[in-house]
Design brief:
The complex is a heterodimer of chains A (171) and B (280). By secondary structure, chain A is an all-alpha fold. Chain A has one domain. Chain A has five helices and no strands. Chain B has 14 helices and no strands. The chains are: A mainly alpha (171), B mainly alpha (280).
């Protein structure tokens, strides 16, 4: 490897290291937005499984839904702008960004599937008798996303520390 | 004066017809005046300065059209008896028209039209505590979203259909509050009391939530005199229509952030960090 190449590579990993937490944030915001968007597009509009309003919806459920809906709408767009900002600073780190995305997506889906659907009775996943099956699939898939996301963030954290150590050794 | 009956029996007597037309003309008058003022200012100042951007003029014209569609003509007539039409007209009057007109930067145009002494007076007003209060994001949110809560969860909505005066005041309020809210969140004109992006983003999210919660609430709790089917459809128009226009506001706010945080050097982060490493 020529000196120039290795310098370039070095500067990219330093950029990534500087932008490491912003990679997670960008992924997290976009992940939350993405899951909320899929929830709205697929489960509300296409399948008509979710209901716009359920008679058993509690007031706190309505408030929680309103806040999360507004936040996720904002997060989808803001997450992408943050992504563009990281890109123009040459600090994009796919694995770490994906970690953030899965963490955001899984976290939001788990919150939606447990607290909003069950505790606050916002609406059910589908209006059928054996809704428990849907609940289990919904929440386990949320957990899987969450765990893979956390795993990705942990391993990129370790790499990040390595970059900082080697950068310090170089100087 | 009863404008409600004016629409129900529009063909019965010409007096009722006049009664229905009067508030519509009254409400459309300010928008006609604003339209003429803006266009004349553009023509007038283009002789002295570089041409005023075309997109701003286009936005202003479209904004005025949206407002006029909401206050005069077939949609405004239907809005008196049909809650879904009312919701559509409110989306136009309270959200889309203010947004388009804010993009058109009317204050900037006014500043370049006025004589220097007048322009100084205007900027003194813009710096005053009064303007500070009304364009504060939280105050504007209360005026805008709070106003809607009062309108739809009290008797005000049914009272509005019985009094021409209330009808005119409420519609002007919806437009002005929508405009103040828009300019408190995204900056197209000179702003002397700036708030950070994070601050405005937070207030925007809370305002969106307030709007969304109210729309879903109306689904199950229609204002007095509104049939359930109309309330359900109207609530969804408010919810999804609001989301659509909000997406534009969010996009523009993020775009302004993206431009404001543009890195100055080619790779300032890398350069800084590398310098820091070398100095260790």
């Amino acid at each position: 490897m020529t000196a120039e190449n290795s310098n370039e590579k070095n500067s990219v990993s330093i950029n990534r290291s500087v932008q490491s937490s912003r990679n997670v944030w960008s992924g997290l915001l976009f992940g939350m937005g993405l899951v909320a968007f899929i929830d709205e597009a697929v489960f509300h509009q296409l399948l008509h499984w979710h209901h716009f309003y359920d008679k058993s919806t509690t007031d706190i459920g309505l408030v929680s839904d309103g806040l999360f809906h507004a936040f996720s709408w904002f997060a989808t767009i803001a997450g992408l702008f943050l992504f563009a900002d990281i890109r123009r600073r040459n600090g994009f780190w796919l694995a770490r960004w994906m970690g953030g995305l899965l963490l955001g997506a899984g976290g939001f889906q788990l919150y939606d599937g447990t607290i909003q659907h069950k505790l606050m009775r916002l609406h059910q996943i589908r209006y059928v008798e054996n809704v428990i099956v849907y609940d289990i699939v919904w929440n386990i898939s949320a957990l899987v996303l969450l765990i893979v996301g956390i795993y990705l963030i942990i391993i990129t954290n370790k790499k990040n520390q390595k970059v900082e150590v080697t950068s310090n050794e170089h100087s | 004066m009863n404008i409600h009956s004016g629409v129900h029996h529009v063909d019965e007597t010409s007096i009722d017809h006049v009664a229905a037309i009067f508030p519509q003309l009254l409400l459309s008058l300010p928008f006609f005046i604003l339209f003429i003022m803006y266009i004349s200012a553009v023509i007038f100042t283009n002789r002295r300065y570089k041409p005023w951007p075309l997109y701003r003029t286009v936005c202003w014209v479209l904004g005025i059209l949206c407002a006029l569609l909401a206050v005069v003509g077939p949609l405004a007539n239907r809005a008196l008896v049909d809650f879904t039409a009312h919701m559509m007209s409110h989306l136009l009057l309270g959200m889309l028209a203010p947004l388009l007109m804010a993009i058109a930067a009317p204050v900037t145009l006014l500043l370049r039209t006025l004589r220097t002494s007048w322009a100084r007076g205007l900027s003194r007003f813009l710096k005053s505590w009064l303007s500070r209060i009304y364009t504060h994001p939280i105050v504007a949110t209360f005026l805008n979203i709070g106003g809607l809560w009062v309108l739809y969860t009290t008797d005000l909505y049914s009272l509005m259909h019985e009094s021409t005066l209330l009808h005119v005041i409420i519609h002007l309020h919806v437009f002005i509050a929508g405009y103040l809210f828009t300019v408190s969140i995204i900056y197209f004109d000179p702003v002397f009391h700036r708030k950070s992006f994070l601050y405005r983003a937070t207030v925007l999210i809370i305002a969106l939530a307030g709007h969304g919660i109210l729309s879903k609430y109306l689904y199950a709790h229609p204002p007095a005199g509104v049939p359930p089917e109309q309330a359900e459809l109207g609530s969804m128009i408010m919810y999804y229509g609001g989301d659509l226009i909000d997406a534009i506001i969010i996009f523009l706010l993020c775009l302004q952030w993206f431009r404001a945080t543009k890195p100055r050097a080619a790779e300032p982060w890398a350069a800084e960090k590398q310098r820091a490493f070398h100095n260790q």
